[in-house]
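Quick illustration, no need to memorize.
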Amino acid sequence: MNLYIVFALVSFLASVVGSVCGIGGGVLIKPVLDTFGILDVAAISFLSGCTVFSMSCYSVVKARINGSSLVDRKIGFPLAVGAVLGGLIGKTIFQYIFGMVTSKERVGAVQAACLLVITLITFLYTLSKDKIKKYHISNMPACIVIGIVLGFFSAFLGIGGGPINLMVLFFFFSMDTKTAAQNSLYIIFFSQAASLVNTLGSHTVPTFDIRLLILMVFSGILGGAVGRIVNRYMEDNTVSRLFMGLMLVIMLLCGYNMIR
């Protein structure tokens, strides 16, 4: 029972802040659950991906229905197409590495190290983003390539999208924080959908308690709903400060998991 409570709380709270900041929640779910060492990295990656997919699906569909979507389809659609391709590539490579390596803990260490480096780069960029020149790319092939990169990291690391999504959207598309958050969730939705289809199609679903999956998915959707409400009452500066704080937490967790 304690295990279910922990997984539910982690999924809910991570989805709340993930919805507010546009980082998907998996970037918190994955390293936090890794610290417990209860399940192997493949099971946690899959559960995290399903939770993030559910939360992002709710957020994207809800925003579209009530007319509050800030997604620019001319940019968002090619990014999503690229994210699907990148998600398939990332998941395929993860499954290949996981199958080849005898020590599954080493795969988790590699994931933690990659996420640590990505988060550190994003943190340093965010500190200086006002001084760095930004671009407004609208070229479709370029958007697809950028989407492939984002989708790859999303699926390979099992985090949904994470800080890298926002950094890329800030730099290449000159988006403000809230617009970037919605576009990030839009990309995460498609990359995680592709990753999930790949896992089901290749019959590589890891072993886990199905009750955990149901509980985490429900908690993710509930967290996404609460996050949307919270986001309405938060200023861009507040969201940015929350994002910075989360990156510090993520780096500490990744450092611990990598060493462990």
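Residues 2-259 form one domain.
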